[in-house]
Specification:
Blueprint: E1 2-5, H1 10-21, E2 27-30, H2 43-48, E3 56-59, E4 62-65, H3 67-77, H4 88-102, H5 111-120, H6 125-148, H7 164-178, H8 187-197, H9 200-205
Parallel strand pairs: 1-2
Antiparallel strand pairs: 1-3, 3-4
The protein binds glutathione.
Glutathione binds at residues 9-11, 33, 38, 40, 53-55, 66-68, 102, 110-112.
Length: 214
Amino acid sequence: MKLYSFFRSSAAYRVRIALNLKGLAYEYASVHLSRGGGEQLRPEYRKVNPQALVPVLQDGPRSLNQSLAIIEYLDELHPEPPLLPSTPAARARVRAIALAICCDMHPLNNLRVLRYLVHTLNIGEEAKDAWYRHWIDTGLAALEGQLASDASTGTFCHGDVPTMADVCLVPQLANARRADIPLDSYPTLLRIDASCRALDAFARAAPERQPDAD
Ligand SMILES: N[C@@H](CCC(=O)N[C@@H](CS)C(=O)NCC(=O)O)C(=O)O
């Protein structure tokens, strides 16, 4: 398998964690999102992913995009260890946490959105940073409330084994730290994040451990 990735991409980070949890080897293909105006925008990469986003996973003849779709594909083909729990209600809970991050938080602060705010709408760096912090805080506060008050939360987001929810949470917190956003108000998220990052599969997927890290 070949993963088109960028060390700082949190969407690619999710897939790296999932691949590691499954014990699957892969070739790392770096797509630098800022060098030369962004390698993701080049015609040759648009042939790999017309959305011009990472990650993409190539598995033999198949080329897959969208991190959650890739993670569920891996989970179906390689069921051990499972990244989704066994009951419909528990699976819905895990997917809801993952979607709250991947659909309601991450896209608002994606590189192309931030570039549009600054370069097309001319909102200025300070306002852009306020936008970034606002959507991180809004999302994390809701997740903290949800996870802290639910008995299904355990060592990890759902129970005592990592799931797709944790695979999404850790990269989102890494983004928040990179933007120097204070995280003290989210003790449950920080506790889960620490439990995850103590695992080798999460640690090896971290941005600073990737071959294209600078
Ligand atoms: N929903 C997509 C999001 C992918 C995405 O937004 N990737 C970002 C990096 S985290 C990207 O490639 N950004 C390039 C850009 O904004 O130009 C997924 O989960 O795979």
